[in-house]
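Work Package 3 (structural annotation) set out to generate three-dimensional models for the target panel prioritized at the project kickoff. During this period the team completed the workflow that converts sequence records into discrete structure tokens, so that structures can be stored uniformly alongside our sequence database. As a representative example, we reproduce one entry of 160 residues exactly as it appears in the project archive.
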Amino acid sequence: MSAVPTINFREATVQEDDLIAQHFYQLWRDNNVAPESIRSDWLETILEFIEHVRQELYYKAFVAEVDSKVIGSASCQLFAGLYPVPFTDNYRKYGYIWGVYVDFPYRGQGIAKQLTSMAIDYLKAIACTRVILHASPLGKPVYDRLGFVPSNEMRLDIID
């Protein structure tokens, strides 16, 4: 019988931004986004975004590793909003979790749940009043188990 690998969870380092970006790319590919629908400069675009939100929106990422190899990650930040926010922080200071990804062989072991929990804890520590995310079909059961509930977001696709 083979030994169960030890999974180590920790905060990601700046040097792992490329890996976080690659996980974000793979997340979209796993959700059936065709390569031709992803910009050729996706890596630079994601890295620029991470740098911006690190400076402006308290970005942090967390990773899971096995034998010193990162096999999963999750990112979080303050939610920048889609419209002007006239509310005080104690009324509405939202955190946003994105890019939760686990390599295929390690899925179904609670890794995404642990990474998401770490992101939630961080967002609590910076006094967020709510955490939001957009779940993939595969991720929805993870978030349901963590207490996330569907919101009132509505969507209309206007192109075929």
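DSSP finds four helices and five strands in the chain.
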